[in-house]
What we know:
Its main location: cytoplasm. By secondary structure, this protein is mainly α. It is built from 13 helices and 5 strands. It folds into 2 domains: 2-186 and 300-330, HUPs (Rossmann fold), CATH 3.40.50.620; 205-297, Tyrosyl-Transfer RNA Synthetase, CATH 1.10.240. The longest helix is centred in the last third of the chain and has 30 residues, at 301-330. It starts with a strand and ends with a helix.
Amino acid sequence: MRIVSGIQTTGNLHLGNYLGAIKQWVAxxxxxxxxxxxxxxxxxxxxLTVTLDxxxxxxxxxxxxxxxxxxxxxxxxxxxxxxxxxPEHSELCWILGGTARMGxxxxxxxxxxxxxxxxxxxxxxxxxxxxxxxxxxxxxRATHVPVGEDQKQHLELARDIATKFNTxxxxxxxxxxxxxxxxxxxxxxxxxxxxxxxxKSDPSDMSRINLIDADDAIAQKFRKAxxxxxxxxxxxxxxGERVEARNLVTVYAALADRSPQSVVExxxxxxxxxxxxxxxxxxxxxxxxxxxxxxxxxxxxxxxGAELAKGAAKARAVAAPTLRAAQEAxxxxx
Length: 334
Ligand code: ATP
Ligand code: MG
């Protein structure tokens, strides 16, 4: 098993990213058997499709790397790097651009959503983004890719590209990467609106818990989180359409590694006046130590950059032979 996963460097990480992605990465890393490996990267090249601020991109890359290290990604067990330091991603992307079809990319819902009505004004990178994503995975000949609901279509495309490449050039170069769907990964909603996803691009900072937030900010954000006036029932299903209540229970359960059902049973009959402080205490207990490590790492940004370079060297050692084989397959003289 070889796992490959990336996260776009478009902002500071929050509780949704932690519970929905990073915590799963750490668990996957910790569960690797001998001979298995995991590559985790910061997708700074992907960020170029939406970001135009060089200083912000540079800072965000280091800050996100520090956050991943603080959360438990360990260079001795997994490989952590930034995409730009491994040029094989871009080179393979260009080769795969000859394989991918316009019609395939035109069908990507993320392209349609993000470009909106202004297709003529969208960047070319935003359109070809899924081809780079295919290269990200195929360049390591990955067998498994952790994906959220929103990325399933792109992984399917990577499989189509791999299949067509293998067939067209009569090689057996790319294994078809399988989705790794974690049962434990919850979808965390905004603290201001239970129908919207918690997200780094939400303009309201009160909508999310950032992993860099101080304890009192965490407590304040949960205190002010939108809820209803009803007490908690004794079954999670009975929460029905109470989206904000469901979300806070889901957050509590994920932080405590418990089932949402066991959480509502514990708090049955109580209102949010008592549930919210308990939730804040739990969040502070889990996130506080991560923030403290993060703050220390941010004091030594050079060291964080050096960690990324170290990971990139390991990644290149695996990516280079795949690129070479792809170049040979298509007849490039290099
Ligand atoms: P943006 O608003 O820029 O899209 P984001 O907060 O959605 O940012 P992404 O970089 O798109 O973050 O996602 C990084 C990872 O975190 C992905 O694996 C994604 O599935 C996961 N993730 C993002 N938001 C949530 C959330 N609210 N709940 C659970 N997982 C999330
Ligand atoms: Mg997103």
